[in-house]
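STRUCTURE:
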């Protein structure tokens, strides 16, 4: 009987550590998307920055001017708001929290900082990542 209890405990512990590793891997993959976005933005490459977003009409971006729906509209919004390298500047993030919502979705809360010749800018964001076809994509972004 003790042998069976030990086996069951070992199985439960190994399953818990596998789940923990998977969640940590998810968070690292999400951080990698954010890093790629930060580098693309700082290189004034908005199209590459947008690769982190879900390329779908259901993408939602909520900013100071209201909700923008769709990947193309979000790209155009960024291009209009940040027309030159002086406007994009150098981006840095401070990630305050990454929390699991479901097996394939997380929210990320943080702060962004733009160092620019036209004046620095800072703000906060909450974005929702979803695993789509094996890749982590932003499906909703609230930034101010």
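SEQUENCE:
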């Amino acid at each position: 009987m003790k042998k069976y209890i030990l086996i069951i405990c070992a199985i439960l512990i190994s399953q818990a550590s596998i789940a923990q590793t998977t969640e940590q891997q998810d968070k690292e993959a999400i951080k990698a998307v954010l890093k790629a976005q930060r580098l693309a933005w700082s290189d004034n490459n908005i199209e590459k920055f947008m690769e982190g977003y879900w390329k779908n009409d259901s993408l939602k971006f909520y900013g100071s001017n209201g909700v923008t729906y769709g990947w193309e509209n979000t790209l155009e919004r960024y291009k209009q708001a940040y027309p030159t390298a002086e406007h994009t500047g150098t981006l840095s993030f401070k990630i305050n929290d990454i929390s699991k919502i479901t097996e394939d979705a997380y929210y990320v809360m943080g702060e962004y900082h733009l160092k620019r010749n036209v004046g620095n800018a800072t703000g906060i964001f909450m974005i929702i990542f979803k695993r789509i076809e094996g890749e982590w994509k932003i499906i909703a972004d609230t930034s101010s």
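REMARK: The first strand starts at residue 60 and ends at 63.
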